[in-house]
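Researcher: Let's run the pair from yesterday's discussion. Sequence first, then tokens, for each.
Model: Starting with the first of the pair.
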Amino acid sequence: MPINITMPALSPTMEEGNLAKWLVKEGDTVKSGDVIAEIETDKATMEVEAVDEGVVAKLVVPAGTEGVKVNALIAILAVDGEDVSAAASGGEAPKAEAPKADAPKAEAAPAEKASEVPKSEASSDKPLTDAAPAPSTPAPKAEDGKRVFSSPLARRMAKEAGLDLTGVTGTGPHGRVVKADIEKAAASGGAKAAPSATTPATAGAAQAPAAPMAKGPSDDNIMKLFAEGSYELLPHDGMRKTIASRLTESTQTVPSYFVSMDCELDAMLKLRAEINASAPVKKTEKGEVPAFKLSVNDFIIKAMALALRDVPMANASWTSSARVLHKHADVGVAVSIPDGLITPIVRKAETKTLSVISNEVKDLAKRARDKKLKPEEYQGGTTSVSNLGMFGVSNFTSIINLPQASIVSIGAGVEKPIVRGGKLEVGTVMTATFAFDHRVIDGALGAELASAFKRYIESPMGMLV
């Protein structure tokens, strides 16, 4: 029997991707673990490995195809001894089977929705997805008595929009109603649910009321404000949509507050210069180069990680049933890429030396710009650092990147008059502005973390021991 190869979900938030390149051709023999294709998501380009062995009977989706839905058929594999031409024609219409209640394929949900997953899932390293509905909480049924299969996210959205799920056509696996179906039905004025209709909650999941989406002027009304021919349209790509969705959710659900600290940089700048001057050299194709070159940002990442180690109650995430206390400081570093932003993560940063952090950040940033990061390299994290000092920005505030509960915004180091030992001197001062999720980090706790960060920046030798 031919084996169907489908578009994989390479991240929890992935709904579609671009099939950038096939690394095999029809007639090639592949075995489990062979890389067969490159898939572009909103954040990265990733390699896809074969799970089964066989001969590539047909490449259903051509290379370069954009917007391929998750679980869509992309290729057909003939098993050993099977007629390849027969497999190519017989594998295109797989038999539909009823979804199993105990293990349906989950529709991806944003990883930052930690408040909507069970405690056991939120505290693990597994991607956060819509939980499978338990048998005790059946989905709505159509008039003929058959169950309407739908994801918990789709049911919640239908309830908020007042839609009757039995009147929505599902386009997910096995006809399952997913998020995109609800959005389409709502836009077209789909069947409204009866006033008394309710949607059962996902079994085992901690439920939280969804924040109402802010409504602005319609696209048509916006376009009327500008003279025809005075603009061009740049359609949103997947990354821009993801950024908009995540930041909108954060601003609508997180009760944030801000704390600013002025940090003197003179001792750190002196230590940085001494360390860089004493860095060992290594031979490369370009000649001898230093083994590392520390930046101010490397010290900031290390200081934030050590501050979270010293103030462990601030190294946490929010769920509606419990706070998730993290055992390590996984620090996300905001990296600007063409028309977007991504935050690759330095894992266990409190345990790493400054030179290791420096080289790791350079590697992550390069692969981020090349869209070569793996999902586990930019998802999760316990805090983030955003540095605009290199642009001359003196201070600013950032939006918390869920499910994290904090982020520090770093301004430029500028020379200012300061008092030392009763004497007026000129020193280099940097403003660090922290954003905290008040559900997790109260004011005094946030101030304690900011003070710990300031202490490491101003006494940087403490980062070396």
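Model: Moving on to the second of the pair.
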Amino acid sequence: MEAEEELKFESACRFVIKLGTLAHRYGPQALRLESYLSRVTISLGYKGIFSSTPTSISFTFMKKDDELWQKQHLVSMPGTGFDLAKLAKVGELVNEVEAGTVSLERATEILDEIDEMPPPYRNWMVAIAYALCGAGFAGFLQGSWWDILLAAVFSLVVFLMVTFSGHYLGRFADWTPFLCALVAGVLSAVTGFLVPGINVYLVTLSAIIYLIPGFFISVGVIELTTKHYISGLANLVNGLICLVLLFAGAWLGVTLTGVILPVHSAAAGSIGSGWIWVFAMLLAAGLCIAFQTPPCDLFWALVCCAIACVGIILGVNIQGNNMGNFLGTAMAMVFANVWSDRINRPTSNVILPAFVFMVSGSIGFRGLVAISAGSTALGLTEFMHMFVVAITLAIGLVVGNLIYKPKITL
């Protein structure tokens, strides 16, 4: 009997370890992943303590009647990505395990099958998503029609570079953000010479908007406020390093081109405020597809982004940008929690695109651009405001969770 119980305990530990390592790759926040693993372990009849960072996960298991004896396991992770379709599949599998319809042994095998399954959106669709993100962001900032068109085209170039960087750059793949921004900056500057009247920096920023680490910077600040210091600092530092690489590449591309060609960067032309909603939804659609949001959840993810946008506009009209970020995040979080509770799907499927929709990192990028142009005071103000945005997002998440208590999901 004791040997059988030990084998059952071992099987549960192996399942939770594989569950955690695979789910970590698909994009959940550290706090959400730790809470979820704890819930699953309790449902299997045991207790667990977990610690997740961008580069590792620590697992500690114990039997409820013997907390002095613990089984520990540490896994080194290559980093976090985004694949909401696989994240949803993992959530569905865990529901079946908790319901007793799938054995742990079979569930462990299914986890490998999930990891190997093809994404719902193929490469050509993700390429279109990059273009939608670029065009959507340029339009959301009310650039000119030329700015929007060029942002979409250059976003496709960035997609190709990101896609092939892992195959050809090898150990230099970490420099992908720098190289992408460099090429985008050169292309924007050359086009600024050939087609006077475009906003070179707006086009460059829009072309690399998918690479802007606003999500990781904001998550880092949020995790620091929840006392997840190691994960928070790691996300914050990694986000800032990526932001600096993007700025350095964009600045170098525009500057070097300006040595050869007279680059004329115009102020942002306006397409009219009536188009903002159209381009906001294009940006949201691009993010959903790029994150591999399951097709069955795509509509609801767009609804969540629209609710966030409504909250931003209402908050701005009430008391300014910070109120807009807070209200948009809180409203989106409440919707995501209600949706997850009613449909029993992972909250991340709808809240992650809406959260990235805030793109607080773009504010930091614009701050660095202003500093490089000699507007030091303005640049520092915008760069520091990036952290204010992250804090307002964190408060919005907390308030949203207080208004409607969330179910523990991925």
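Researcher: Give me one sentence on the second I can quote.
Model: Residues 123-403 form one domain.
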